[in-house]
Amino acid sequence: MAQKVIVITGASDGIGRAAARKLAADGHRVVIVGRSPQKTQALADELGVEHHLVDFADFGSVRALAAELAARHPRIDVLANNAGGVFGKERELTRDGHEMTFQVNYLAPFLLTQLLMPTLIDSRATVINTSSLANRLFARFDLDDLESEYGYRPVRAYGNAKLAQILFTKELERRHGDDGVTSTAFHPGAIATNFSADSGSGMAGLYRWRLRDLVLASPEKGARSLVFLAEGTPGRDYPTGRYYTNSKPARASRRADDVELARALWDRSVAMLEVAPSGR
Ligand SMILES: NC(=O)c1ccc[n+]([C@@H]2O[C@H](COP(=O)([O-])OP(=O)(O)OC[C@H]3O[C@@H](n4cnc5c(N)ncnc54)[C@H](OP(=O)(O)O)[C@@H]3O)[C@@H](O)[C@H]2O)c1
Known about the structure:
This protein has 280 residues and is of the alpha/beta class. It has one domain (5-273): Rossmann fold (3-Layer(aba) Sandwich). Helices cover 44% and strands 12% of the residues. The protein contains twelve helices and eight strands. An eight-stranded mixed sheet has the order 3-2-1-4-5-6-7-8, sandwiched between helices. A hairpin with a 2-residue loop joins strand 7 and strand 8. Helix 3 packs parallel to helix 4 (100-115), helix 4 (100-115) runs parallel beside helix 7 and helix 7 packs across helix 12 (259-273). Bound molecules: NADP nicotinamide-adenine-dinucleotide phosphate (NAP). NADP nicotinamide-adenine-dinucleotide phosphate (NAP) binds at residues 10, 12-16, 34-36, 39-40, 54-57, 82-85, 104, 130, 132, 187-188, 190-191, 193-195.
């Protein structure tokens, strides 16, 4: 298998950490990105790989990460936007003034991807977004209320952000497919990690439960789709621009197929972030 340069966010724990271990064991050059300095350093030492720190609740930190990655890596074959979770029993704002779950799961990875676009185009890279079944179960997507100002609920904000990621996945291909960039989103399954444990949401109890390992799958199993998509050749081994579960294309929310919605979300996101628009 050809060695790839694979950048994984949210690699300090859970699904991202399990994926980083497997991809490093398979001989790829894995670049891990985490938020916790201790956990990220521990994994970097274990695997002997390069690491970076970022806080997605702070765009300044995302911009610094993008600059570091672009300077160190003229080639990035895979960008795995995996960091995320459910945050805030009450609606919480980031230091940039955006609703926390929306920014951490969607806006920050969108920004990172935009900032890395020249490298991703030069590398004919693939962008993998860790989404969630929550896009179908909980989303009530409203382009005019992306920040959940009305009727905030943690799982709804999460479902909306994970649907936004799928819309982003599809629009990224539409805008940059001709540049050789591909993109895929996936749901990892219900996985025994720290995910949502501090969110105070309805899901928190399950993920904090002492016996959670009896009903939730292992992080290694949760990493399987990410590893499959990262190691395969997009377009040849699997169709891209889609949403996957268990390494197979799956049904997302019907709204994920709304081409105009995807286009409008992209334009809104660019305006919110004040980045130069990329693609057509
Ligand atoms: N577990 C599930 O059942 C499940 C189901 C569907 C989708 N997902 C998705 O899978 C992805 C990975 O979650 P997981 O289950 O592996 O949870 P996890 O064990 O809690 O890991 C989350 C990762 O995201 C990082 N992260 C969280 N907030 C961040 C921030 N503000 N800035 C930068 N990094 C941040 C964490 O960094 P630190 O640990 O360093 O703070 C950690 O590496 C998420 O996108 C989640 O939404 C999980």
